[in-house]
Amino acid sequence: MSRCYKIVKNGYIASVGTGGRGGTEVSEAEYKTILEAIHAKPEATGTTDYRLREDLTWETYEVEPPEPEEDELTNEEALEIILGGAV
Amino acid sequence: MAEYITTDTDLTSIANAIRTKGGTSAQLAFPAEFISAIEAISGGGGGGERIVKGSVVLAENYNYTSGSAEYTGSFLVDTGLTKIHSVFIIDTKWYDKTLSRPGFGAASWVSPKSVGLEPGGTTYVFNGYGGGIAATASNWATSWVPTICVITHEYASNISEGCFGMKVSAASYSIKAGDTLLWYATGV
């Protein structure tokens, strides 16, 4: 296997990869261990998600709802339309 | 069979050259791993052109953030090339995404036109660059469709970084933890 690395952001593992440069180089064994931990990530809910600590334990955190696209209606605009307001 | 004597210094020099060319730091046992490491080195065209490859697996969900240049985050890929000429991405899911080259600002965004495989095997020919995203999730029967994006840059003379990044361009899409992205880059 080519070079393995991990990328750590603010104390949490953000990604692992192979090839190229960048990140912090890790052994193939460590890469596979991190990969196993990633594939065991708990399922996120609408308001909580998980991030991977460097000790390969998952930490819960609250997530913000995604921003709407520019041409999407806000909830208020949609409600106004539904209630017979302007479009 | 003739036998030859060499030194550990000479073998280390050869191994170092193989590692440099192959982009790895692994210990190599002579001769089998020398041979396999050499065979694993990607070849390229003339003029120093190389093909390099790699993979990225996210440990976090990568969601849409309006106006942000997420290429500086976990999805920054340093290919090891001095100049990227093209990037091929193979993802296990289709997502609305764009590529960027750090340091060149908005003009450097290259929006991939994606190609995927419909159930039944129809392949859409993909080439080109710029423009918008060609397909949405509604074009495909399921979201688990392999997607191949071919990117060629428009500003060859300006490219000096060997990095590319990715950004999710729509709130309705994300890249999930565990998703694997395979990339192949050509350049020098």
Give a description of the structure.
The complex is a heterodimer of chains A (87) and B (188). With 87 residues, chain A is α+β, with helices and mostly antiparallel strands. Helices cover 23% and strands 31% of the residues of chain A. Chain A is built from 2 helices and 5 strands, in the order βββαββα. Chain A has helices at residues 28-39, 75-82, and strands spanning 4-9, 12-18, 24-26, 48-53, 58-62. In chain A, strands 3-1-2-4-5 form a 5-stranded antiparallel beta sheet, with helices on one face. Chain B is an alpha+beta fold. Chain B is elongated, with a radius of gyration of 20 Å. The N and C termini of chain B lie far apart (41 Å). The chains are: A alpha+beta (87), B alpha+beta (188). Chains A and B meet through strand 2, helix 1 and strand 4 of A and strand 1 and strand 3 of B. Strand 2 of chain A pairs antiparallel with strand 1 of chain B.
Strand and helix map with partners:
The complex is a heterodimer of chains A (87) and B (188).
Chain A: E1 4-9, E2 12-18, E3 24-26, H1 28-39, E4 48-53, E5 58-62, H2 75-82
Antiparallel strand pairs in A: 1-2, 1-3, 2-4, 4-5
Chain B: H1 8-22, H2 32-39, E1 50-58, E2 62-63, E3 77-78, E4 84-91, E5 97-100, E6 114-116, E7 147-152, E8 163-168, E9 174-175, E10 180-187
Antiparallel strand pairs in B: 1-10, 2-9, 3-8, 4-7, 4-10, 5-8, 6-7
Kindly state the percentage of residues in helix of chain A.
10-25%
Structural class of chain B: alpha+beta
Q: Pair with the most extensive interface?
A: A-B, 35 and 37 residues
Overall, the morphology of chain A is elongated
Strand percent estimate of chain A? 25-35%
- Major sheet strand order of chain B: 1-10-4-7-6
Q: How large is the radius of gyration of chain A?
A: 20 Å
Poorly predicted regions of chain B are 92-160
Q: Short description, anyone?
A:
The complex is a heterodimer of chains A (87) and B (188). By secondary structure, chain A is α+β, with helices and mostly antiparallel strands.
